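To: structure desk
From: M.T.
Subject: fold request, one chain
Message: Could you run this one when you get a chance? Sequence is below, nothing fancy, just the single chain.
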Amino acid sequence: MAILHIERQEIDKPAIEPITESEAIKAFLANVGIHYERWDVAIQLATDASEEEILSAYEAHLVPYMTRNGYQTADVISIHPGTADYPSIRAKFLAEHTHSEDEVRFFVSGEGLFWFNLKGQAVFNVLCQQGDLISVPKNTKHWFDAGESAPKVNAIRMFSDMAGWVPHYTGSGIESKFSA
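Reply: Done. Structure tokens follow.
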């Protein structure tokens, strides 16, 4: 289940308590234009399940969602401690960026932290975990962290056009002011 944390901009103010209730997270994110939902599915997959097995296992949820939202293709991204050149991959995701297409992720297992820097909002992050689906609208400033050590993310990605998922870095450097 997701955890939403809103960063406090003023140092002398008390920390804001994390939000853990799914409907409250969904409402907060909807208010800033980000789609979130939970897929309560009890699918047991082998830890070494193939991309085809994962996509097939979630097909009953995946196909209707993709059809409703105009997504044409899906794949699976897996990040784990043995991922080759993980520090370089992590660094790419850690820099604030946008995409020219929505970034849609359904977390099959593991977890990852999406950070957002939206105009008129305090910086906030959402820790997505197994069963969480998040859709970051195109041109939304964000960055992502799968963790410094022992990363574990197994997520289904959905696309209208995979070319639209190329990151466009903002160069703001704001991500360096926040730690995971």
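Reply (cont.): The chain has four helices and ten strands. Let me know if you need anything else for the meeting.
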